[in-house]
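Researcher: Quick one. two chains, 227 residues in total.
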Amino acid sequence: EPEVTQTPSHQVTQMGQEVILRCVPISNHLYFYWYRQILGQKVEFLVSFYNNEISEKSEIFDDQFSVERPDGSNFTLKIRSTKLEDSAMYFCASSEFINTEAFFGQGTRLTVV
Amino acid sequence: QQQVKQSPQSLIVQKGGISIINCAYENTAFDYFPWYQQFPGKGPALLIAIRPDVSEKKEGRFTISFNKSAKQFSLHIMDSQPGDSATYFCAAASTTSGTYKYIFGTGTRLKVLA
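Model:
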């Protein structure tokens, strides 16, 4: 069964450093998303991406964040100058069309120390 | 208006019992309501979803009941099993918004006792 894969599974970084979280969406999917889940809290929308551009972003997704689809298979989330409060589980998701189910990856646990 | 309110926060059910989790929303533009199941350390996995043109959808032991006028929907897990112990999130999305982002509820931690 096709699945969304994310790497790494766990990333520890020093405060102020830049991190790149990587995702390989399901191959025939066209819509890509990043969500964040702070420990013990709900899953929060960060950004959606379609046709090589951001289609919507939340207030969380400020200038510190950026997304990119550098090739035909990867979808990345870059966090510049990480802060302690960026520590969370980051989930990538993809959907085939705009109104079909989103499938989530297993997540990358980001720990900022 | 973008919130989805979920209750209870936690739930303990005996094996074989019925687990019921409730969600409520305010944004009438929402027209897709999925439920996700999440095990510790894993990503949310789609369990079952409903659109507002039906009042109930059943898949195996899982049933969604939807009340459009009350803007509420609920997940019923029949014959609950210890393997159902997980966190359940309801979500809502608007297919007219152009991006189909999900607004998640706060989650319900379900524990099914053997």
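The first strand of chain B starts at residue 4 and ends at 7.
Researcher: Thanks, that's what I needed.
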